[in-house]
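Standup notes, structure subgroup. Blocker cleared on the iron/sulfur cluster input:
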Amino acid sequence: MRMRKRILAISLSFAFLILFSSGFVCFSLPVISSVFTGLISILYNIAMKLLLHTCCAPCSIYCIKELRSEDIEPTLFWYNPNIHPYAEYKARRDCLREYAKVVGVGLREEDAYGLDEFVCNVYDKITTRCEDYCYPMRLRAAFEYAKTHGFDAVSTTLLYSIYQKHEYIDDLMTGLAEEYGIEFVYRDFREGWQEGQDEARRIGLYMQKYCGCVFSEEESGLGREIGRKMKKAGVSPTNANVRKIIEANKVDNIVRPSLMAETVQREFFTED
Ligand code: SF4
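Run returned:
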């Protein structure tokens, strides 16, 4: 595939040189040059075989739309052994299968529900689990799959979520791209966060309430509980002050739900 692109680019460059050397287009060189550059870029994108690691259907909406607007046709790649429990894993996977059919996009799957393996790998790094295990495990698998199945480039819907560690993912994928000799297509898909969310709700996709692992499920549930209590107390439940309460209630870096309830009570219901 990469060879095809090179041949394409060389052919177009030759065509341009012939036109230029004939003196036919000298007077409009800048215009012709930009037309050719644009053409090469469009053809390059059309020819690109891009594997898009996909965490769920709602996150894929904007990414697919954006890539298609650049004439890049992605192939989705499902590999998310970080999603627990199995009912949640299945709900997200099945929703993606349906959505892929609806929008007519290719979908490849490494169908692995990996609770045991995930927990064994993060039990001693709960607070750094995203960077130290979850992202590398999934994204390396995407590059591995791309390499063994003839893809030219890799990207991920994790770059769409406003809740993920965007810069870390960018750096990680840049390194993996070098290691595997496969292009990393970076886009800040977060720009379309609201648009994607609105569309997902409009077409009735399954919307998850937490990132994926059981630890994120706990944090998310507690966050919502704190938010409800704050609202009730007339305090704005911003991410920052919800986070403050969670951090204040960690013992040995682990959140203790029972203490959390006490803190919320103390902080916001002292008048009761
Ligand atoms: S919070 Fe999300 S990214 Fe982090 S380990 Fe859990 S599932 Fe993975």
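Discussed briefly. The first strand starts at residue 50 and ends at 53.
Next: hand off to the docking folks.
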